[in-house]
Prior knowledge:
Strand content: 5-15%
Number of helices: 9
Number of domains: 1
Amino acid sequence: MELSTLARIVIDTLITTETFPYMWRDPLMACARADDPLFLRLKEVVTPDHLMPDDLLKGAKSVIVYFIPFRREIGIDNSSNYPFASELWARAYIETNTLISTINERLSGFLSLHGYRSAITPPTHNFDPELLVSRWSHKHIGFIAGLGTFGLHRLLITPLGCCGRLGSIVTDAYIEPSKYQKEEICLERRGTKCSKCASRCPVQAIGSNGEFNRKECYRMLLENDRRYGHLPLTDVCGHCSCEVPCSYGVPTYQASQELP
C-alpha cells in the first residue's frame, strides 16, 4: 500500500474517532513536492521570509496538506450569530486545532515507523503579529498541492468548500505529488458575479475587487476572542466562509442567486 494511502487512513481514522466527530465531514488530502518551484513564489506573494520545506526539514521531499471541512450545522450556527462568531464556531476552532496537532503527531509517528523523518508546524498562530502574514501559510501550501484555488475572501476553496481548517506536515519520504487545480473555483474569479463573502464580512474588510484590509479583519477576530474570554484563545470570525456559495463545495451561479 502506498504511503499516501496509508496517510489518508491515519487522517480519516482520527477524524471519525475523536471526541467531537459531529463537527467534521470527510477530509481531503494532497501532496506537493518539496522542491516545487511555486514554494519560492511564496516569498513574493506572502512574505519575503516565508519558510521553505527545507528550512523545516533538511532533505525534505514532500509536503502533506489536508483540509478538514466543517459540517454545515457549524457554519449555519456561526452565520446565525452575525456579526459576531458563535460560541460553537469558537469551540470548533479550538477542537479542530487540537485535532490537527494530533493528526500531525500521528502522521509523524507513522512516518517514523517507516524510516522517514518529518517536521510538524502548528495549526495556527505562526504569523507575524505586525504584518499579519504567516511564515508557513497552510492555505498557500494547499494551493501548491492542488487542494483548491483562492477566493475573493483570500481563503482556499476546495472541492468541499472553504468552511474548515487546514493542516500540513513536511517529510523526507517521497510521496507522489497531486495535480495542480488548474481551473478557478471561485465564481468571481471565473467571471461570474457573486461577492457574497464580501457582503458577509462584518467589518467590510473584503473589497469587491479583491482588496483585503488585514487589520480590520484581525480587529474583529480579537473582538470575538474577548467575547469568549472563558475559552482558550479564539481569535475567530469565519463569516466570509459560512453560508456563502463556496462554503461546502464548488460554488454555482444558482447558489449565488439563492443566498441573501
